[in-house]
Amino acid sequence: MSGTYDLAVVGTGIVGATAVALAALRHPGASVVAVCAGAVHDGSTVRSLAVDIPAGRTERQRALARRSLDLRAELAALAPALNAGSRPSYWVLPDGGAAAVDGRLVGDAVRPCDPGQGAALRAVFGGAVGAAGTGLWRSAAATVSEPAAAVEQLLGVLGGGAPGGLLGAGPGAPDGDGPRRDLVEGFAVRRIEPCADGHRLVASDGAELTARRVLAAPGAGALHGPFAATAERLGARTKKIVAYRLRGGEPGGDRPLLVLDEPDAFLLPVGSGSDWCYSITSADWDCPSERGRLAPDPADRKLAEAVLAEQLPGFRTEFTGCRTGTDLYLPDFAPLIAPLDGLDGAVLATGGAGSGFRLAPAMAEGALALLGLA
Ligand SMILES: Cc1cc2nc3c(=O)[nH]c(=O)nc-3n(C[C@H](O)[C@H](O)[C@H](O)COP(=O)(O)OP(=O)(O)OC[C@H]3O[C@@H](n4cnc5c(N)ncnc54)[C@H](O)[C@@H]3O)c2cc1C
């Protein structure tokens, strides 16, 4: 590939795609290339439930959550699949647990359910929901995005489209006289080397391209190749995330999202039937980042069933499927936004820690700021 791009973005998950869109919107004259190791949707983003309940355990996480809300509202004009839907949100909290949740929420607080709301929840989840040492609470509606469509719409600013025509020319796509904007699939970056024009990116098949600045958003792939030294030095580890598909309760389009706070799980209604996605935190650390090598194991299923049995004993469900993905976690569970060791003008933005979809706008903006492109 000849010519030097102003910016190369490595990774076309939600973080990389958001960085591409923000860079194109804020620097209309900049030439941008996005590369991904396999096909566009080969990372964790496409498996995400893409729920946003704006919250954070630390002040920095809350600041990123707040900023992401604003940026996503701005980006939704380009990518309507962001914030595509919303769900009324309810919580099962241990007695005395509301203050801690309030401390985490951004611009919101939980309120006790009124008798009508409690009865409606019991009608869906069984009579024991919120009983025995727990209570039922509600918060503002959670937004839910459509991850694959959002990525495609954000990458629409690249214009040229992926081989096979995955991406049409998006609303922000340049016309023939605009700056060069390319998407290259199957470009697994193995090395990044300083060169006269900035950086040379070398792929595992020997293909090369050059860019003045590099924003690497490789998700859990940060523990490999040219990102590994920085990610390992900062203590990054991979962890599995599991979301089961369930069928249970009465069908209906206005079913709520239910957060089971203490076991760090939630139930998200899907469609207008009686299907749910049930997200549960797996205890499986240091798992492989490649999708094909990842599978749910009996321990995940046992944990998922035990949480349901304890918190929602009257909710009769049938497990109908499962999706798994890997995410990168830093020791403080905050995203990693940092210069790449030994490379001026190259940064790393990863470490979604199970919240990377909702935090992606602020992660991408923070990385662009390190490159002087915010
Ligand atoms: C089941 C599940 C449910 C989830 N639910 C939620 C949720 O409700 N809300 C929420 O906020 N988050 C959720 N998450 C987490 C969220 O999906 C992730 O944090 C987020 O998608 C990570 O995005 P990313 O762009 O960092 O990485 P990814 O989407 O994994 O993308 C990484 C990209 O980098 C590329 N790449 C990697 N290495 C290289 C290389 N060497 N060369 C070239 N390209 C490379 C890959 O090809 C890929 O394109 C969930 C995750 C899972 C698995």
Tell me briefly what this model is:
The chain is an alpha/beta fold. It contains 8 helices and 17 strands.
Structure in words:
The structure is a single chain. The protein is α/β, with parallel strands linked by helices and 374 residues long. The chain has 2 domains: 4-80 and 146-235 and 331-370, FAD/NAD(P)-binding domain (3-Layer(bba) Sandwich), CATH 3.50.50; 86-141 and 237-329, 2-Layer Sandwich (D-Amino Acid Oxidase, Chain A, domain 2), CATH 3.30.9.10. 25% of the residues lie in helices and 31% in strands. Strands 3, 4, 5, 6, 11, 12, 13, 14 and 15 form a 9-stranded mixed beta sheet that branches. Strands 1, 2, 7, 8, 9, 10, 16 and 17 form an 8-stranded mixed beta sheet that branches. A hairpin with a 4-residue loop joins β12 (257-260) and β13 (265-270). α1 packs parallel to α5 (147-155). It is elongated. Mean pLDDT is 92; it is low at 161-174. Flavin-adenine dinucleotide binds at residues 10-16, 35-38, 42-45, 47-51, 187-189, 217-221, 225, 241, 243, 279, 323, 325, 327, 350, 352, 354-358.
Could you please say which CATH topology of the largest domain applies here? Answer: FAD/NAD(P)-binding domain
**Can you tell me the CATH class of the largest domain?**
Alpha Beta
Count the strands? 17
| CATH architecture assignment of the largest domain | 3-Layer(bba) Sandwich
Distance between the termini: 27 Å
Question: What is the N-to-C order of secondary-structure elements (H for helix, E for strand)?
Answer: EHEEHEHEHEHEEEEHEEEEHEEEH
Radius of gyration equals 21 Å
- Counting helices, strands and paired strands, the structural category is alpha/beta
Query: Which regions are unreliable across 5 or more consecutive residues at pLDDT < 50?
Result: 161-174
The biggest beta sheet reads: 9 strands, mixed
Shape: elongated
Number of domains: 2
Tally of helical segments: 8
